[in-house]
Amino acid sequence: MSKKEFFPPRPSTNPTIYAYELVGVSTHKGLIKIGFTSRDAFSRVSEQLRTSGLKYTIVFEESAMRNDGSSFTDHDIHRLLRKQGFANPDGEWFKCTLKDLQKAIREVKTGERTEA
């Protein structure tokens, strides 16, 4: 087995998981939007909401790289949160806390289920 086959190739981009909340939008109170980008979260969220005039707060931004060099996407996090019973009323929006999100990301990154 060659070194290339053993180690997954590192992406040429910087895969990032981010989350934000909308400020003052009653329909999204208690919801966070969990997304993925190969850029920084501010650039991606600004692009999404550019013309809406909505205010937002980025509450989370972290590398989507595992220690073994592989990466994951927001779909992996979404799938785990739904499996854990968190409400997913619309697309990438979830009714969970920042702590819940951090636990899910740690589980996807390490493959180990955390109780705390």
Structural write-up:
This protein has 116 residues and is an alpha+beta fold. It has four helices and five strands; from the N terminus they run αββαβαββα. The protein has helices spanning 3-6, 41-49, 74-83, 98-110, and strands spanning 16-23, 32-37, 55-63, 87-90, 93-95. The chain has a five-stranded antiparallel beta sheet. Helix 3 (74-83) packs across helix 4. The protein is globular. The N and C termini lie far apart (39 Å).
Q: How do the helices and strands line up, and which of them pair or pack?
A:
Elements (H helix, E strand, L loop, with lengths): L2 H4 L9 E8 L8 E6 L3 H9 L5 E9 L10 H10 L3 E4 L2 E3 L2 H13 L6
Antiparallel strand pairs: 1-2, 1-3, 2-5, 4-5
Helix/sheet category: alpha+beta
Shape: globular
Radius of gyration: 15 Å
Physical arrangement of strands within the biggest beta sheet: 3-1-2-5-4
Q: pLDDT average, as an integer?
A: 90
Report the total helices. 4
The major sheet is characterized as: 5 strands, antiparallel
Topology as a string of helices (H) and strands (E): HEEHEHEEH
Low-confidence stretches: none
What is the distance, rounded to the nearest whole angstrom, between the alpha carbons of the first and last residues? Answer: 39 Å
Portion in beta strands: 25-35%
